[in-house]
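DM from R.C. (forwarded with permission)

"hey, sorry to bug you on a friday — could you get me a structure for this? deadline for the figure draft is monday and I only need the backbone to look sensible"
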Amino acid sequence: MLESSKFSNSKKHSAWISNKDFAFCTLALGQKYRLLAKELAKDLEVHSSGTMLVVGTDQPGDFSECANVIAFKQFQKGVLHCYHDKRFVIEKTLTKFSVAIQIDADTRIVSDLPQDIEWPPGITAGHTEALADHVKRYNLERLTTLQKIARKLNISLDDSIYIGESLFAVCRDNGKEKKFLKYWDIIARYLELNGIHSGEGNAIGLAAAKAELNISTNASYETINQARKHIDASLQKSKKKTLWAKTQNRLSYHYRLNLTRAIALKDFELYYQ
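My reply, with the result:
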């Protein structure tokens, strides 16, 4: 995980966080998503003046002219996809702000956001449901693997909540948020080593259950949700890749896979037994 920097805001942490002790955060890997993140930053300037956007990206320099962006270097760490890499952006944001609002880069803000936004400690989300029911309905083939990692970590799968990942907030909660990120990291690695590379809402829900983070929704979330338009750029056709680009992707994939395997060897019993 990322090394934490000192939290620069001196405001005393209270039961509820309001005003500008929050920031949006997103992952922007590759030119397409960097361009989308820039558009998102422009939207925030128009509809939420003074609100910062923290961006984990392979090219931080691309955001040098975006006054409301805090960009940091981030490469893909997920073996096949980067869905779980959102955890690094959330972690970075929580070193500078008390609330990290995870929003996908391919999102537009189309109407004004209130200046005073409140978040309870823990996770605030909109799309939530019983995790086991969600998996049985949409990805039954993943159930056995999720049951295994839940047992290994002493998590009740039946009591865990699936969390929609395109928009949710994590508010500091006396260190529980750090435990949440730690277990998201562990669960993500286990799932990827077992061939599950997407559906991070399941990992988020299991990690939240392990960290005993409260999961709720409120008017602030609904205001943001109503003000956004999710484009879902992953469904759009990409340009045909060159042979060299395909070779690079293949080499990068095997590098990430072998690195993930090497890290997992440090806890052989958890990952391989």
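R.C.: lifesaver. The chain has nine helices and eleven strands.
me: no worries. Residues 243-264 form the longest helix (22 residues).
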